[in-house]
Amino acid sequence: MICFRQSRLKLIAATVLFAAWAVAFAFMAFVSAYLTGLWPYVGLSALVPLAAAFAIAAFMTAMSFATPATLTLDDGRLVFKTWRRTEDIALADIAGFMVIPPTAALRSPACEKKTGPRKFVSFGRYWEKTPEEIVAALKTRQTE
User: Fold this and answer.
1) Which pTM was predicted?
2) Where do the TM regions start and end (predicted)?
3) Which of 28, 57, 72, 78 is most buried as measured by Cβ atoms within 10 A of its Cβ?
4) Looking at the structure, do residues 10 and 58 belong to the same domain, yes or no?
């Protein structure tokens, strides 16, 4: 059995970062509301949505911190469980494992399914191991 878990330290760091950006954009929107000219419109049309987006991202990573995602490969089944959903995939339905995107700084492990409407399944970020280590372990288990 192979089991991976998201890193709580990385999740709390991401939560703090997203929350800080949300507060910064909300503060800039608040300040721009008291300026003259086009600034109040810029604050409402650009800064408020950015603050809301970062607040949502902070909430999502905080929920992941409370219940970190797990990735388990056992008895011919791959189970990816998050606080929102659980995905159970038969190992025979998986064409291969990969790291996506292969060249970006923020990579995540993923699998390609042979059939189905969702051909690629990304397992997200912030794991205790690197995406390359996770994919290598899953590939070796798949070939057994």
Assistant:
1) 0.83
2) 12-35, 41-62
3) 78
4) yes
CA–CA gap between residue 120 and residue 142 (Å, rounded): 17
Q: What whole-number percentage of the chain has pLDDT above 90?
A: 61
Strand arrangement of the beta sheet that strand 94-100 belongs to:
94-100, 108-113, 120-122
Q: For the domain that residue 82 is a member of, what is the CATH number?
A: 2.30.29
Please tell me whether residues 84 and 58 are part of one structural domain: no
Bridge partner list, 90: 77
Confidence at residue 116, expressed as pLDDT on a 0 to 100 scale: 79
Q: What is the pLDDT of residue 37?
A: 84
Exposed e or buried b per residue across 110-122, where buried means at least 16 C-beta atoms within 10 angstroms of its C-beta: bbebeeeeeeebe
116: left (phi > 0), else alpha (psi -120 to 50), else beta? left
